[in-house]
Amino acid sequence: MTYPDYADYKVGAPIADTKAPAGPVAERWARRRFEAKLVNPANRRGHTVIVVGTGLAGGAAGATLAEQGYHVEQFCYQDSPRRAHSIAAQGGINAAKNYRNDGDSIHRLFYDTVKGGDFRARESNVHRLAEISVEIIDQCVAQGVPFAREYGGLLDTRSFGGVQVSRTFYARGQTGQQLLLGAYQALSRQIAAGTVTMHARTEMLDLIVVDGRARGIVARDLITGEISTYFADAVVLASGGYGNVFYLSTNAMNSNATAIWRAHRRGAYFANPCFTQIHPTCIPRTGDHQSKLTLMSESLRNDGRIWVPKARGDARPPNEIPEDERDYYLERIYPSFGNLVPRDIASRAAKNVCDEGRGVGPGGQGVYLDFADALARLGRAKVEEKYGNLFEMYERITAENPYDVPMRIYPAVHYTMGGLWVDYDLQTTVPGLFAVGEANFSDHGANRLGASALMQGLADGYFVLPSTINDYLARGGFETVDPSDPAVSEAVAATQDRLKRLLAVDGDRTPDSFHREIGEVMWEFCGMARTDEGLRKALSRIPQIREEFWRRIKVPGTGEEFNQSLEKANRIIDYLELAELMCLDALHRAESCGGHFRAESQTPDGEAARKDAEFGYAAAWEYRGTGQAPELHKEDLVFEYVHPTQRSYA
Amino acid sequence: MTLGPSVGLMALATRTERRTEPQPSMTRIFWRSTVGKKTVMALSGLIMLGYLVAHVMGNLKIFFGPGEFNAYGHWLRTMGAPVLHHSWALWIVRVGLLAAVIGHAVSAYQLSRRDIKARPTAYVHKRPRASYATRTMRWGGIILALFIVWHILDLTTGTVHVGGFEEGRPYQNVVDTFSTWYGNVIYIVAMLAVGLHVRHGFWSAAQTLGAGNARRDRALKAMANGLALVLTAGFVSVPVAVMTGVVS
Amino acid sequence: MKLNLRVWRQQNTDAEGAMATYEVDGISPDMSFLEMLDTLNEDLILRGEEPVAFDHDCREGICGACSLVINGDAHGPERTTTCQLHMRSFRDGDTIDVEPWRASAFPVVKDLVVDRSAFDRIIQAGGYISAPTGSAPEAHATPVPKPDADSAFEHAECIGCGACVAACPNGSAMLFTSAKVNHLNVLPQGAPERETRVLDMVAAMDDEGFGGCTLTGECATACPKGIPLPSIAAMNREWLRATRKARR
After folding, report:
1. Do A189 and C130 touch (CB under 8 A)?
2. What is the pLDDT of residue B71?
3. Domain boundary assignment for chain B
4. How confident is the model at residue B151 (pLDDT cuts 50, 70, 90)?
5. Residues sharing a CB contact under 8 Å with residue C99, sequence separation 6 or more, in sequence order
6. Which one of A113, A304, A405, B164 has the lowest number of neighbouring Cβ atoms within 10 Å?
7. Is position A343 annotated as part of the catalytic site?
């Protein structure tokens, strides 16, 4: 079977962010807020806004819009808005409070984030994020988020990877949970007040675009299977990232890309899809049954030493391998940073030694993180005090005691920097469709710094969107959507057809088997290190999997009931298209930057080599049909304040 | 296909409005709430517990012989005199106890019905749950209620008493009751139930009234065990003494 | 490992359910309990049968979605969530009973999936601090003593999984409700709504049809996050205080 050449894409007209005001970067947000049109409080009740997702960005946005007087229709696939996957974030949230008097400032947080993103993010967006960071902490404390405190009753902070100041606020290892519950409680208050109508266990399956504007969604009630339409004056997607395209990731099992991918198919450009972050310290998989991966805090690298045996296929237990037959490869290759190199470098190095056949544990997919030296130097009590809960979690999952044998770790996909292209107002290329949080591409460039995801989600949800959406709504002209409008019936029919088709195939392969397969292709060819050859291989493989999917998928049950297999299979359809776009984006970006490493683009000593002249832009892709080459629109990135430099950690 | 709303119906709400409708009275809130009913149970239970402590002290006077025991019985009727008329104080105590029993029983009944309704389906896989004292609260309570009826008919009114009930001669009446095998059985079983009931009930009442916390927990449990032990041992010592001939 | 599974199957809320027996083979001790069920489901799909429905999402013990009663224990034999329970806690040849949470306030949706929206409604009744976005004072304006902050955090750790209700013989939601009341009421930011919060949340809890608390302690034993039992006493204290102080 032959397929159209997906890689034969066209370059269309460049795209630009027309909403960010000109002028000094520190004044742009204030200016935008002033210049944006407002909606009279008395008129807000007449506007309905749909919010899809209830994580940090969605929960915060829903609560805040409702407080402002809008009516919000909010959706989540989980049984409760409290379960969104923001809840799993461990480390903390950055804010330029400078409570430590250690030289932190809004400008430094801005600078660190632009540089950490390897110069692939917009300066105006990042500066706004840094400005808002301080308000987020105030807001969360007022909501009763129990941040860690000092004995004097003031907030504690800690330092985090890649920065030299202590600006990370935290609530033990459960910062995401506490922030999410804060947003959930604010949202609950509005649900009780009747200003938010919550639709739990309801999944968005398509976007309704009427007369060129986003006016509603098609959603399925996951309990009854009923397909319904919901109309509004604006639609906000807060549905998270798409890391689950890799099958194994630290994402929740049901996190999915359907909302953003369906929006992409309806005209929203998808930006930088290949920018994925791979976290170096996850618990390795134990076998083919593995369903997801669990992250271990990266703080472990402060005291643990990473090594593998020098010899290939050395099957001896770690404690029997003598010191001179061990390769502490990070310390060897990067003598000055050693085990504390940034996430992307540590991840790639682990992959390299495993590819050489020196990996440890089942399947050779792991490296040792050894605390023997730390235990000898600090004593068990001190190590326990610092890492006790992590060691306990590790032991629960692996049944190995890290006090006696070294931990085994391996990198895993955990965040996607890419997402729907949005302007400074967080509006996508479909008027009236907004994207917030991990669902958009805006603030992290090619690599996200630790403790910045929570900051961005809450900044978008509490502060940015509720200001910028007014400008859109104030322009008015919202006729009531006619339910019999062809655009509406087409979206509903397309959704129903898709589900019917899935149920009708009655093949011989389960949804999970396809998800695993596409995940393996992506991990192999679009994972930590990417090559022209590998990506082309993936691009030829994906249409075959897609074809096989529609021939062999088996979905038991019916569409008119609670049917988890149907939910899964329907999400996989979108992964099978998104995977293709990710590979194409990775193929076209023939440079290495941040989480995107192209083997062809490295410095003589094997480090990532950015090509600013050629690729100093955000790549926004326009959908052209399943399997059809999309069109590329480039948004040139201008750096007026933070000047691009090459990273070096050797 | 259903159609979602296209316009918001709710009024502008920049601040959440609470309680626009008239609120029920605090008494009503109290009695309607499970926490309020538990408070009633805790308080009435503590009243009855106080009574039991006094009761067991009185009972132990039996070891000082019929003279002192009967005189104690007589005093119960003259206490409060001359301010109060003969037996008035005793009746005041009785009415108070009756109110406590009714409050305790009605709350227990209503809460139990609610609890059973809240968990209509049992797990297929059975396993022992909670402590023995906890699990026997309901049955123990019913046993004690039946016992109290028998106890009053036996030693207060003499209705079911065997061996010639004589008012004013409690010593002989007690000896009569504990000279029958079933009198001993009923009494001893009931007193064991008292022990179990007090053991969980006292600690539980402390929690309900908000007196429990992590630091105090051991002390409260020790007190509950101590009270249960003292009461059961004190009460049971009387029939044992009759059976062994120490009291006759 | 080879195991015998007895799993509750129920087509929907209104249908009758029953235990069904399945044999699973080739189970690795390193699998999580849910991965073992994934294996069963893959088999069932290929055999043309409907897979077993169960709630799960993060699979790292924090979202609170997973909710299985395994051999009579909410979340199984270890003190953790079902998703963090591994098959090495079982032995080759074991028969394992898997049932849904049982409580009338948590109706079964399908198989092992239940509707826990009652918990959301308890939070909606007052489990929040009214702090509209933008109105917050500077975070350091109000210092919070570290012990209070730690206590708030300890209670805020609740993941809303419902194991407390599932384990309670009365289907009571006291531990869940008290966790949120204590989280917010101990903080200075929560003080203005302290009384209304506890009164409204307890009333909502009662309205949802949860049973009352008999202090069996099963909830705290089952809680994967270790919310302590004295949390309930602390809420009772708050409630009684509120009935005295509330200005209505």
Report:
1. yes
2. 94
3. 35-116+132-243
4. very high
5. B123, B124, B125, C8, C19, C68, C69, C112
6. B164
7. yes
